[in-house]
Amino acid sequence: MDPLILSFAVVNGVLLGGIYGGVALGLSLIFGVLRVVNFAHGSFLMLSLYIAFWCWSLLGLDPYLSVIVTVPAMFALGYFVQSVIISPLIRRERALVVEPLSALLLTAGVFLVLDNLALMAFGPNVRAVQADYYLPSPMLGSIPLNPQRLIGALAAVLVALGLSWWLRRSHMGRAIRATAQNRDAAALSGINVPFVYAVTFGIGCAVLGLFGSLIAPFMPISPSIGVAFGIKSFIVVVLGGLGSIPGCIVGGMVIGVFEAVASQHITATSAAIGSLGLFILILLVRPQGIMGRA
Amino acid sequence: MNTRSITAPQRSVAGLPMGALAAGLGFGCVALIPLLMDDPFLIHSLIMVLFFAYMASAWNFLCGYVGQLSLGHAMFSGVGGYVSVLMFTQLGLSPWIGMLFGGLLAAALSVLIGYPTFRLKGPYFTLTTIAFAEIVRIWVENTNDFIGVPLKGAEGLVVPAAGDSLWAFQFSSKTPYFYIILVMLVLVMLATRLMERSKLGYCLKAVRGDRDAAEALGINPTPSTLTALAISAFMTALGGSFYAQFFRYINPERNMGLELSIDMAVMTIIGGQGTVAGPLLGALILTPISEMARGHLGGGLPGLHLVVYGLVLMACVLYFPKGAIAPLGRLVRRLTDRRGSRP
Q1: If residue A114 lies in a helix (H) or strand (E), which one and from where to where?
Q2: What total of structural domains would you count in chain A?
Q3: What are residue B13's phi and psi, to 5 degrees?
Q4: CA–CA separation, B110 and B36 (whole Å)
Q5: Under an 8 A CB cutoff, do B314 and A106 touch?
Q6: Under an 8 A CB cutoff, do B310 and A272 touch?
Q7: Distance in angstroms (rounded) separating the CA atoms of residues B15 and B20
Q8: Would you put residue A132 in left (φ > 0), alpha (ψ -120 to 50) or beta?
């Protein structure tokens, strides 16, 4: 094993894994607060990729600048999905925590609708954003870093830090954490629980909007990309611990490095199979994940 | 439970429970359709309805009664299809025998997977089933040759034509396929009905209601869930073999992809989980939508039927959590009660 090739794979894996972690943040936040497994997570990412693409191709907006469109749009969509589609279910099962299976089925319905609407509207063709400028590749020792992936990974770390800080310090963050701990007690203390839920869902989707814009410059965009990223996000979140924000980034990087090294030294197929196998193993042996608390 | 009274033998005619009589009459009428109408598109659509009703019933046999959501059942369908086709092309074995081997292999595989995973609850179980099925699909899709067996990866397998032959499970007309899948559906529904009233059925329902309470009563959930899982996997694999013979072509995407698993689950949930007739009802509601989208719109709008599936699923989860069979059952009961109370 050539140490240079290995270190190249590891560095690449860390960068890509950071992006996986950033993409999975919303899934983890929503599960941590609402106990809803959002099956439509990948579909929301797919939508924000398309928004970034159409901003670039129709309005000539640089993908990085399309953040000003994707983030508010995805926040609004998330807020809408939670307050219109999921909240009747939560209201119906007020006494209990939402039965996770019916919430999963509901979001599976959202996934089917969004993915196939995109297929109908945009067709199965793969699209790509072509930037008309070159970003210089910074060097780490003798290893060149992909600038776009570097931006994505750094953004993931920053967003995770910012989100943790915001949840700990801000008024809304406290309300969210209180609701996550005990919905009824939070409601008794005067917290508007449906509003907190809708905002949390909106924030989870807004983070996806951000990463949609950040990965649009180097990601081939097609309606089926949602499923691929959705499954990867589940792996990352389970590995890091469902509901844990730092766990998400760590889990993402573990998966990223694992996949990069395995596809470099064995095959890309075994990397994909291996990460799914790792996912099953973690669920069976340590369901709370690396960073999660039981 | 509202759904109970639909299947319960409340009244009887000439010693036979009315439900069984109605079901026999219904299937008898369906069996006459190919004799009366000779429209290949209609027969094809009916075969697809019956096929999905069969697959959903096989899914329901386990998941509907034990209350766990598996989105990995397409894996068993794939095992069934691949084993029967490979045994036919490689060993010259009749698919009728090959499909039994496929079913047994799927059942063995399901027990191996089910033993560790049934401890997981709710969404964790669901995600694990997806992961297992995806592992198998990715592996087949990227394997051309496995210890001398030509799996042919993503390209898929073609069943070589062998003329009109019962032995080779190949017919030039669609009608024999229609009767085969009709019989398979009747058998799986009979099996479900028998299981519902057996010790196995009561154990499964106890586990669905409250696993901890069931264990406290001395029910060990493992043997009953694994038995039901093995039977469910066996039946799903037979369906996969039927699919392979009917289309004479299988590939990993269509025969073991996530979409097939979702179809099976969504049809059962929309029709009514944990009931004998629910999966059939779900297939009756949903399959015509997809056949129409394919046939009349000329495939111009790929994915249209899945948009409708998604909308119907969301409406069902929100407004009919017990499936479409619950309001239908209420309607039937109201009608029969009114007739019964008249002097």
Answers
A1: helix A100-122
A2: 1
A3: -120, 120
A4: 41
A5: yes
A6: no
A7: 11
A8: alpha
Other C-beta atoms closer than 10 Å to the C-beta of B122 total: 17
Chain A residues with CB under 8 Å of B290 CB are none
Contact B208, B274 (CB under 8 A): yes
Distances (CA, A) of B117 to A240, A256, B106, B170, B264: 20, 26, 16, 38, 20
- Other C-beta atoms closer than 10 Å to the C-beta of A24 total 33
Give the contacts of B290 (CB within 8 A, at least 6 positions apart).
Answer: B48, B305, B306, B309
CA A204: distance to chain centroid? 8
Half-sphere exposure of A202 (CA within 13 A, CB side): 17
Query: Chain B closest CA to A182's CA: distance in Å?
Result: 20
Query: Quick one: pLDDT at residue B2?
Result: 44
d(CA B241, CA B239): 5
Angle at A251 between CA A246 and CA A256, to 5 degrees: 130
Of all residues in chain B, the one with the smallest CA distance to A270 is B139
Q: How many CB pairs under 8 A join A and B?
A: 111
Residue at A228 is within a domain: yes
What's the domain range around A22?
3-120+169-285
Closest to B275 in 3D by CA, of B323, B204, B218:
B323
pLDDT band at B295 (very low <50, low <70, confident <90, very high): low
Closest partner residue to A108 among B119, B134, B313, by Cβ?
B313
**What's this model's pTM, rounded to 2 decimal places?**
0.87
Q: Which of B124, B138, B310 sits opposite A273 (nearest CB)?
A: B138
Q: What is the DSSP string of A235-251?
A: HHHHHH-TT-HHHHHHH
Determine, yes or no, domain membership for A107: yes
Domain-located, residue A68: yes
Domain ranges of chain B: 19-334
In angstroms, the separation between the Cα of residue A72 and the nearest Cα of chain B is 25
Per-residue pLDDT at A292: 61
Which one of A105, A115, A259 makes the best mutation probe of the B interface by having the most chain B beta carbons within 10 Å?
A105
Residue A178 lies in a domain: yes
Residues of B with Cβ-Cβ distance to A81 under 8 angstroms: none
Measured between CB atoms, which of A109, A234, A267 is closest to B317? A109
Q: Is B164 exposed, middle or buried (0-12, 13-18, 19+ CB in 10 A)?
A: exposed
- Least CA distance to B135: which residue of chain A? A273
Window from B26-35, B49-58, B270-279 with minimum mean pLDDT: B26-35
pLDDT tens digit string along B210-242?
778 888 888 888 888 899 999 999 999 999 999
Q: What percent of chain A has pLDDT over 90?
A: 38
Residue B17 tokens, joined = 């429970």
Q: Find the closest chain A residue to B131 by CA distance.
A: A276
Q: Which residues of B touch A284 (CB under 8 A)?
A: 116-117, 119-120, 128
ipTM of predicted complex: 0.87
Q: Which residues of A touch B210 (CB under 8 A)?
A: none
Inter-chain CB proximity A101 and B134 less than 8 Å: no
Task: Using CB atoms, pick whichever of A37, A110, A280 lies closest to residue B132.
Answer: A280
Tokens of A54: 């159409």
d(CA A187, CA A194): 9
Considering only CB atoms, A276 lies closest to which of B131, B303, B307, namely: B131
Among A57-66, A97-106, A120-129, B227-236, the range of highest mean pLDDT: B227-236
CATH dotted code for B19-334:
1.10.3470
